[in-house]
Amino acid sequence: MHTYSSKLLEEVVEEFATLPGIGKKTALRLVLHLLKQEKRDVEHFGRTILRMKEEIVTCRECHNISDSDVCHICSDPYRDKQTICVVESIRDVMSIENTQQFTGVYHVLGGIISPMDGIGPADLTIESLVNRVKTGGCREVILALSTTMEGDTTNFYIYRRLQEYPVTITTLARGVAIGDDLEYADEVTLGRSLLNRTSFEETFKHSKHGT
Amino acid sequence: MHTYSSKLLEEVVEEFATLPGIGKKTALRLVLHLLKQEKRDVEHFGRTILRMKEEIVTCRECHNISDSDVCHICSDPYRDKQTICVVESIRDVMSIENTQQFTGVYHVLGGIISPMDGIGPADLTIESLVNRVKTGGCREVILALSTTMEGDTTNFYIYRRLQEYPVTITTLARGVAIGDDLEYADEVTLGRSLLNRTSFEETFKHSKHGT
Q1: CB contact, 8 Å: A96 with chain B?
Q2: End-to-end Cα distance, chain B
Q3: How many CB pairs under 8 A join A and B?
Q4: Orientation of helix B39-55 relative to helix A7-17, angle to 10°
Q5: What's phi and psi for A168, nearest 5 deg?
Q6: Which residues pair with B185 in a beta bridge?
Q7: Are the beta carbons of B165 and B131 closer than 8 angstroms?
Q8: Mean confidence (pLDDT) of chain A
Q9: How far A153 CA lies from chain B's nearest CA (Å)?
Q10: Which of B22, B28, B34, B52 to mutate to test the interface with A (most CBs of A within 10 A)?
C-alpha cells in the first residue's frame, strides 16, 4: 500500500509489523520515531534485542525466564521448595509474584493443552513437572491455570499424572472477584462460589492481611 | 510494578516502552513474542534495526529518506523537476505518492515552524529549499503543509523567502473532503470552500480521472 522511498525502511517496517497487534501504520510510526533518535540509542535498542535472544535462558528447574541456569526464585533459600505453583506462562509468574502472597516455587508449562491449536501434553513441560514431583520433596502442587476449558483439561491431565505420588494437588479458589458487584458476576462463577462457600471467620482472617 | 525474573528481559521491555504509544504491558507482550521466535528471526530483527540507522540517509536534494545519496524520486528522469512539492515529513511524501497524481519532486522540511515546541525556521530545511529555487529551473512550489496555525505560519514564511524569485507559489486546495457529509464539515472549511468554489466543469473534469 505504502510507497517507501527506501528499501531498507520498508524492511524494518515489515519486521515491526510481524509483532502482535502492530499493523503497518503503527510499525511505520515506530520506525520513523527510531530514525529520529540518536544513533547511540538506536544501536543500544538493536543490540539489546540481539543480546536478549543470546543470553536469556529458561531456568532448568521451573522453566521460568532467567539470566542464569537456575532462576532467582528457585535459587532463593527462603522460598519453600515443597510447594510448586503450576502456571501457563512467565506472565502468570509475574502476576502471582506481584501479589506478594506466595512463597513457594513455580513451574512454567509454556502453554496449556489445546487440541484446537495443536498443543498436546508433549509440547509442554509436564514431564519435567512429574520428574520434579518424583524426585524432590514436593508436598503440594497448586494448579494455577486459566479457568477455561483448556485450563480444566490441562488441570485434569496433570492431576492424573501426579495421582500416584504422595502430593496434595490444589487449584486456585474460584469465586466472585473482590470489589465486584454480585449483580455482574456470571452465574457459573456465582454458583461455584456458593457451593464452595467458606466460613466467615476464615474470610475475615484473610482480609486482615489486606487484599 | 512488574517483577521481572531476568534483568535483561526488563531492559528489553524498557527499550520497547520508549517507543511512542507502547506502554510497559504492550512492550512485555512484544518482547515475550520475540522470545518465542526462532533465534535467526530475532537476530534478523535486531540487525535490521542496526543497519537502518547506519545505512538510511536523507536525499541531498529533497531530504526524503533514501538508500542512496539522491533518492529514487529525485533521480527519476521522468519526474518533473520544475515542480517542487513542499511537505512536512516523509510520511506526507508517502501519502501524496499513494495518490499517484503527482509527477513532480518533493522537498521535506523535517517539521513545521512551531514556537511552542521551540522549532524555528533554522531547524527546518528551508534554506536548502531557497537554494534549490535559486539555482534550479523551478517554476512552481506547491506548499502542502498541515492546515493548522503552524502550517500557515510556515507557509507564510516560505512564501516571503521565495517572493523574490520567479516562481509560482501554490497551496493545496482546501475544502470539503470527498465523501464527507456537509452537515459534519466544520464551518471554517465550509466557508473557505464556498469562497474558493470551482466551476462545475472543472470539478467534473477531475472526477473523471477517479478520486
Answers
A1: no
A2: 50
A3: 150
A4: 140
A5: -85, 130
A6: none
A7: no
A8: 85
A9: 24
A10: B52
Contacts of B26 in chain A (CB under 8 A): 21
User: Mutation test of the interface with chain B: which of A2, A4, A6, A75, choosing the one with the most B Cβ atoms within 10 A?
Assistant: A6
Q: In whole angstroms, how far apart are CA B104 and each of A106, A154, B101, B173?
A: 63, 63, 9, 17
- Judge residue B190's burial from the number of C-beta atoms within 10 Å of its C-beta, 0-12 exposed, 13-18 middle, 19 or more buried: middle
- Among A21, A28, A65, the residue with its CB nearest the CB of B9 is A65
* Model-wide pTM > 0.80: no
Please report residues of B whose CB lies closer than 8 A to that of A52.
8-9, 12, 31, 34-35, 42
In the numeric block, which cell numbers belong to residue B28? 512485555
- Specify the DSSP element, H or E, that contains B201: helix B200-208
* DSSP H or E stretch at residue A143: strand A140-143
A169-206: pLDDT as tens digits: 888 877 777 777 777 777 777 777 777 776 666 666 66
The A residues from 23 to 52 touching B (CB cutoff 8 Å) are: 26, 28-35, 39, 42-52
Q: For A135-139, B70-74, B105-109, B163-167, which range has the lowest pLDDT when averaged over its residues?
A: A135-139
- Domains, chain A, in order of start with CATH, read 9-38 (1.10.8.420), 83-172 (3.40.1360.10)
Enter the ipTM: 0.73
